[in-house]
Specification:
single chain, 250 residues, alpha/beta, Rossmann fold, five-stranded parallel beta sheet, 7 helices, 30% strand, globular
């Protein structure tokens, strides 16, 4: 799967280092290690994570891990995995209010953590996609928060959207200069739910109606001279969506 950007909320340095090493070896990236509520809030202002791992007990913090996660989820939904050495029913009940993807007791195995992280993210993506299909019909016109106001955007004129840290760049047919939105790509996906929009990777959503050419590791969109780099796995999945005429072997 694609590399995930993960926020780790953990006040114990040894545990945090162990988690970081395990996830990095699996190909994922730790955006920040936040030891307190304040550090966690500051971290998401720099870049919104794909997933949060949070210890429940945070020494020296103005709020514990549960309250910290609740504050973060008010901004945007994201899968959460709680870590704790305390399995008391009261603690477990409090975590249920945030609907966590998983609840892991310390000590835990590295491989188990990696598996839980990847399953949690995949399950969250399935839920997001199913909600998008059912409840968000494709609008003919959108007004997106750009700059200090809201700008008119016609979805069918969008070439692709590119996640760039905590921002999204939106490219259109008629304008070589992208529009920059201060929000997460996942929050925009429901507004581009028509069948012609395809999520090529975690960071790129393309309009298949404007797909001009597909090569081994690149693709080209109409009116765009610069190619978009793609992995072999993403290319293989994309080809399944296209009506491809394949040559017969000689």
């Amino acid at each position: 799967m694609d590399s995930l950007q993960i926020l780790l909320i953990e006040d114990d340095l040894l545990t945090a280092t162990d988690i970081k090493q395990a996830l990095q070896q699996a190909g994922h990236r730790i955006l920040a290690i936040a030891r307190t509520y304040t550090e966690a809030i500051a971290a998401v202002k720099q870049q919104w994570p794909d997933l949060i791992i949070a210890d429940i007990r945070l020494e020296g913090s103005s709020a514990d891990g549960i309250d910290t996660v609740e504050a973060l989820l008010l901004r945007q939904p994201v899968p959460v995995i709680f870590l704790t050495a305390n399995s008391e029913e009261e603690t477990v009940s409090r975590t249920r209010l945030t609907r966590p993807a998983a609840f892991m007791l310390k000590p835990f195995r590295r491989r188990e953590l990696v598996i839980q992280v990847e399953l949690a993210y995949e399950q969250h993506q399935l839920i997001v996609q199913s909600v998008s299909v059912v409840s968000a019909p494709e609008p003919k016109i959108l007004y997106l928060p750009i700059g200090k106001g809201y700008e008119r955007i016609v979805p069918q004129e969008v070439l692709y959207l590119l996640a760039d840290g905590s921002y999204v760049k939106l490219f259109q047919i008629s304008d070589p200069k992208p529009r920059v939105l201060s929000m997460n790509l996942g929050a925009l996906i429901p507004y581009f739910s028509a069948p012609n929009f395809y999520r090529l990777s975690r960071s790129i959503l393309i309009n298949l109606d404007h797909l001009g050419r597909v090569e081994r590791n690149q693709l080209y969109l109409t009116t765009q001279q610069e190619p978009i780099d793609i992995s072999e796995n993403n290319r293989a999945e994309l080809m399944k969506k296209l009506n491809v005429v394949r040559t017969r072997p000689a």
